[in-house]
Design brief:
There is one protein chain. The chain is built from nine helices and seven strands, in the order αβαβαβαβαβαββααα. By secondary structure, the protein is α/β, with parallel strands linked by helices. It folds into two domains: about 170 residues, Vaccinia Virus protein VP39 (Rossmann fold, 3-Layer(aba) Sandwich), CATH 3.40.50; about 40 residues, no CATH class. The protein has a seven-stranded mixed beta sheet with strand order 3-2-1-4-5-7-6. α7 crosses α9.
């Protein structure tokens, strides 16, 4: 769909904020939701900023695009990502996101998409329904059909450095930054534990930098 499952939004915004990319490629722009969220929470300047975060998108179905998305993104490439990505420079982006996209590609084109994303971006985040989630053509867009499945085990086998626990959605982080993976894994553990933690401790861990330093110390990554 041009939108996204609401259950994954908080996790993805949290990931983007903690990764602090200066450039993002959004594959499957749809209604522009994640571009807007990146502008608001990563760039912290809102959709009308003309400097700071560089944000590009790819959208195969031009019928989704309006002035809303064109305001949010610096550039939108219209067409098949598998034709567009090979024309992009390697490591052109700090972060590439393909959210609820890969299940629309028949095997082995999903693997090809992943390889292309890992070439053009230092870090990649992929999401997909966790189990079977049948879906056909929608909104006059044949590309909305689900034709493959990407459970956590498959994403892990494809090289994901971290799978974020979630009951409905596979959320995979691909990166060579082992320090960030160690930090974020520890952060997820602390976040779950915070439900039972004293209020004062949670309050002291509210800022990203403070939580990062605390998690790294606990993970043995800061000397």
């Amino acid at each position: 769909m041009p939108g996204s499952r609401f259950e994954q939004i908080e996790i993805l915004v949290d990931l983007m904020v903690r990764l602090q990319p200066s450039s993002i490629l959004d594959v499957g722009v749809g209604n522009g939701l994640y571009g807007l969220l990146a502008r608001q929470y990563v760039d912290e300047s809102g959709p009308f900023a003309d400097e700071g975060l560089h944000l590009e998108g790819i959208e195969i179905f031009e019928g989704y695009l309006t002035d809303v998305q064109r305001t949010i993104y610096d550039r939108i490439h219209v067409g098949d990502a598998l034709a567009i990505l090979p024309e992009m420079e390697g490591r052109a982006f700090d972060l590439a996101i393909a959210l609820d996209v890969i299940e629309h590609l028949p095997d082995p084109r999903g693997d090809e998409l992943l390889r292309d994303l890992l070439r053009v971006s230092r870090t990649v985040v992929i999401t997909s329904p966790r189990g079977d989630f049948p879906q056909g053509e929608m909104y006059g867009n044949v590309h909305e059909t689900h034709v493959s499945t990407w459970p956590p085990a498959r994403l892990r086998a494809a090289g994901a450095a971290l799978i974020v626990p979630h009951p409905f959605v596979s959320i995979a982080l691909f990166t060579k930054d082992r320090e960030f993976v160690r930090y974020y894994h520890r952060y997820l553990m602390l976040k779950r534990a915070s439900v039972l933690a004293p209020v004062g401790l949670v309050a002291r861990m509210t800022t990203v930098d403070r939580f990062r330093k605390f998690a790294l110390r606990r993970a043995g990554g800061e000397r």
